Amino acid sequence: MMSNVKQDEKTIWAPILLKWYDAHRRDLPWRDKFPRDAYKVWVSEIMLQQTKVEAVKPYYDSWMTKFPTMQSLAAASQDDVLRQWQGLGYYSRARNLHEAVQEVVASYGGKVPDTKKEILSLKGIGEYTAGAILSMAYGEPEVAVDGNVLRIFARLYNISGNILSMPVKRQITALAQSQIPAAQAGPFNEALMDFGAMVCIPKSPRCNDCPLIAYCCAKKAGIEKELPLRITKKHIPTEQIAVCVLSHQGCWLVHRRPAKGLLASMWEFPNVIGSGAEGRNALQQLVASVGLQVAIDSASIGTLKHVFSHKIWKMTMYEGRLTDGILQTKEDWQWLPKQAYTSVPWAGPHGKITAMVE
Q1: From the candidates 45, 140, 142, 268, which is the catalytic residue?
Q2: Count of other CB atoms within 10 angstroms of residue 246
Q3: Please, which of 49, 55, 94, 244 could form a disulfide with 85 given CB 3.0 to 4.6 Å?
Q4: pLDDT of 93-108, one tens digit each?
């Protein structure tokens, strides 16, 4: 069953939420007076995808210091962009943002487009980000539906269907759209974000602090902790990864990942899928492919678990010693001076390894 809506869908509660927002809004570095700067909204919303607000704050401040304008970001190298993003994860977000900003500078005169069709054509921008930019920067009556909004509306309207299904998402989007106050789309969307983060939180909503409790059908039915319903059938596989930390004359042997795919264009220590003796043998073969002979200790120097959205890496690190050979000239391999390790963008887990072995 998709919905158990019992309250009148035309009930207008948005003014109550906005009044609550005026009193309780979070102080966030990307929030200026409305209308917001489109570039700042864009950067903050991309960073906030799959990442908690507190983790984003220092990255946002650092980013805006490094790339205060779209022109400065467009002119930057991909390595500079990835270094600035390092630690936030989901690096395709940074690459897509970089490419999309370059398109805005080249094709739109450095102004973020203000129509939904044009803004959705930019790389890395979906319905949510488009709604956030259009409402907050341009005052357009667009909703920005994320997990917070899905949860809030599932409870307010007692929607028992799977909020990850397209029919339920469409239903909630329509309900949210119906609540947008005239000329207040930006504040309304931000109010929903804060309300979902501070009051209508997952698992144990703070109903005693809720300004909308009189409108909440789930609360009236006593099932506010049971909603929303999220049904996933996702199995996350685990891969065993063997890593070689090879030092020579104050340098590490490092490798740049391919330009497409997981952790694209990031730098890493030589590594293979495998474990134990099999993994160490595969590491020796990998290093031999670039002209180097290496002895690898059988005892590991540490382990590391890294969780992606779609897989888990269980990494075992081994120390290697160069016994013969000269590194063949290849752009994606190099001897990196240890003191210059911050000069390259590290693939997330490998950045952690540098701290373990330096």
Answers
A1: 45
A2: 23
A3: 94
A4: 999 999 999 999 999 9
